[in-house]
Amino acid sequence: MDQLLLLALVALGLPLLSFVLVIFNQRALDQRAHLISIPAVAFSFGLSLYIAWLKLQTGAAALGPYEWSIDWIRFGIIPGFGPLTIPASVLIDNITAIMMVVVTGISVLVHVFSIGYMRSDERYARYYAFLGIFTFAMLGLVLSSNLFMLYGAWELVGFSSWALIAHWYERPAPQYAANKAFITNRIGDAVLFTGILLLDGEFHTFNLREIFGLVGQGLPITFSLLGFSPETTLTIAGLLLFGGAIAKSAQFPLHVWLPDAMEGPTPISALIHAATMVAAGVYLMARIFPILTADAMLVVACTGAFTSVLAATIALTQTDIKRVLAYSTVSQLGLMMMAIGAGAVSAGIFHLVTHAAFKACLFLGAGSVIHAVHRAQHETNDHEWDAQDIRTLGGLRKKMPLTAYSFVVATLAVTGLPFLAGMMSKDEILSGTLAYGELQGGIAMALPVIGFIVTILTAAYMWRLTFLTFFGPPARRTLYDRIRESPLVMTAPLLLLAAASLWIWYSINPFNPETGRFLTKWVKTTVQVIPPQTAPPFRTGLNVTPHSEPFGFAIAPSATSVLESPMPHQLALSEKSRSLTPLSMWLALGSAVTGLLLALWLYLLRSKRTPSKPRSRTLGILHEIVFRGYYIDSVYNFAVVGTVLLSSRIVAWADEAVIDGVVNATARMTVILSRILGYFDRFVVDGIVTFAGAAMQFLGLMIRSLQSGRIQTYLAWVVASVIAIFIVIRYVVLALP
Amino acid sequence: MIPVGLPHFLVLSAILLVLGIFTMLTRKNAIAVLMGIELILNAANINFVAFTRYGAINFGGQMAAMFVIVIAACEAAVALAIVLNLYRRSQTINVNEANKLHD
Predict the structure, then answer these.
(1) Gap from B5 CA to chain A (nearest CA, Å)
(2) Which residue among B98, B100, B102 sits closest to A707, beta carbon to beta carbon?
(3) Do A712 and B103 touch (CB under 8 A)?
(4) Which one of A412, A491, A515, A521 is at 20 to 30 Å from A147 when CA atoms are compared?
(5) Full-model pTM
């Protein structure tokens, strides 16, 4: 076995081992569960780092994307389909290596943070067990190279998130939130699985690279669903796969579960929002990007943009510290999707990585605040206020400086200010989108505009949150006096994550990500393998120079000739994007500063505290609408839940009236028929028997009466018989012809 | 004056037969029943003799009548012995009560 594979499998297996060990020894381990979980995940993180070093340092040319596969399930030959074998296969390329580091890295810090946050929780061991399987599921997802295995890991991610969101299942809200997250995701999973089956049905393989190769060779004529053209079918397949990503990454129609998932423990929110669950959707889109058609890309980009601006406006009105962050995540994920849809996949992945660091930092910071406020509430016996409501906070900067300043650093990052990683990744997205808009024209031009609006909104709501929480005068004096900084196990992960949000890890020059290795060497834009006729119809005639080794997917040998160099449109986009970077950077910086100043003026300078509703009436109504998340949940409740309830009521009625009616009628008919048969049996069948018996008895009686024993009776019979014989002979026998 | 012929004898015989049967079926006294039997036998004898006289049978009828008389004597002897035995057993010769054949 190859060294790389062995390392990857060990890194994958350790969190699973931690899960198995802890879940079966919950009682025995109890408050010591982290002693098993943390070393396992930390070792896994170390291995991931080593794999990434091997993979990235030596370069793709030296090791190449590593793929290993064994046959997992053999179904034999399916009639009308052919042989169906499902492999278990592992693909280690650059994107996998980076994702492994992100997943295990965030997971380790969440594990450590949880020692403090979950202390004296009664299901401490169970919590750590599920952290392990969550990490395992996500690692399995990024390592799998075929869609079937990916789907399995995908489901496992959904399950673990369900188990963790419902950690405090005694309370109804976490139960509801967990079920909502799970069911919403199931909708997406069903769509995703349909897409996977469609691809498998057409290509007879689940393997991603084989699919890319087949698409790259030009679509086979047989590739058509219900008579659509191959191009349309490929668009449908891409959109079906995107359906899964919509649910997992909380994109517009299915984003409703993510804010509710805040009911879970805060470290879980950090893990879900940064490295595991929501990253899965973006990761999937980056993975399958090579087969996205122009139409599918446009849908992805528009969905992302719409989600982004929608969530950003909602975030502006929320008062729950975690809900602001949750909508912020939805918004940032929208940006990533928009980038991928615009073709700037590497920008999307870059933002995914940097976002993982600062969003984890923000969530863990929020967790630290909540932890501190809870403790203060406990000491003052003041449970009247919601600990997560930013209107009750304020001025915490002086009480918990470590938390506050790491939070501020992360906020700077998400806002997109210089010297932080967030700026670089966000600018990559914006310049990519801008290039896409310019090349594509038309509706696509709206995407960069939305991008800049989102940047303003992001700065506004994030600084509103930061100012209200950590700056200004405290809202509750009694509470405030009792607040203390969280223990080191909690603040240390915060500081590490804040440090990871700095620019230096990604590029030496904070204003040009191209100087770093991340974008130029590690994550280059994925090659699209779509045949020219379905590729984005850019109207540009750029001079195309073939790029060397593209990141990510090594190409199936048969398709090498097609895929050696990026498609012309791909190069056009990346050239255009590079030329637009300075412009978009200034625009983005301007937007971010605008938002920041807006928040500064509204929430820190203008008045002491006005986080509550605005005074103007129209604005009040508008605020209410946005605060309720545009009533999307209510619409779902009305439209979906209502429809389901109504239809179940109809079905129940039909069941009672029609089906039960038929059954009852049948039963009644049977009873009637049986009764008729019973009568027939009793009177006809038994009647014959009884009649025969009775006749015999009667005959017997008759004959017995002949034998009276009296001589004279006998004589009388003799006489009568003689007369009878005489009559018979005389009138019957002699009368015969 | 109508000359006496075969039909007169046959009618007489039939009357005797019916009387005999009637006596035999209706009388309770066993001796009377036996007497009814004698009447029947004699009705037969008259027929035999009449057929001989008016037919061409050459004394066959007289011979049959003789046999009948002998058999009647024998039968009377046996029947009387039965009746005596019956009386000795049950102190009656009423044939209605003599239903021992029933058992």
Answers:
(1) 26
(2) B102
(3) no
(4) A521
(5) 0.73
Can you tell me the distance from the alpha carbon of A20 to that of A129, in angstroms, rounded to the nearest whole number?
7
Q: Which of B21, B33, B103 sits opposite A709 (nearest CB)?
A: B103
Cα–Cα distance for residue pair B60/B63, rounded to 1 Å? 5
In this predicted model, what pLDDT tens digit does every residue of A350-397 receive, in sequence order? 888 889 888 889 988 998 888 888 888 888 777 677 777 777 777 788
Residue B33: list chain A partners with CB under 8 A: 711-712
A716 vs B103: CB contact, 8 Å cut-off?
Answer: no
Q: Phi-psi region for residue A416, left (φ > 0), alpha (ψ -120 to 50) or beta?
A: left
Query: pLDDT-based confidence at A220, cuts 50/70/90?
Result: low
Contact in structure between A353 and A513 (CB atoms under 8 Å): no
SS3 A546: coil
pLDDT digits (tens, 9 = 90+) for A549-563: 333 333 333 333 334
Q: Distance (Å, rounded) from C-alpha A710 to C-alpha B102?
A: 7
Comparing alpha-carbon positions, the chain A residue that sits nearest to B97 is A710
Interatomic CA distance for residues A485 and A423, integer angstroms: 29
**Partner residue opposite A711 with nearest CB, options B26, B101, B103:** B101
Burial class (CB in 10 A: 0-12, 13-18, 19+), A11: buried
| Structural tokens at position B48 | 């035999």
Cβ of A709 within 8 Å of Cβ of B96? The answer is no
- Minimum distance, in Å, between the CA of residue B99 and any CA atom of chain A: 5
- Confidence category of residue A533, pLDDT binned at 50, 70, 90: low
The encoded tokens of residue A384 equal 């009247």
The rounded mean pLDDT for chain A is 81
Q: What is the pLDDT of residues A607-649, one digit of tens each?
A: 555 545 555 666 777 777 777 777 777 787 787 778 888 888 9
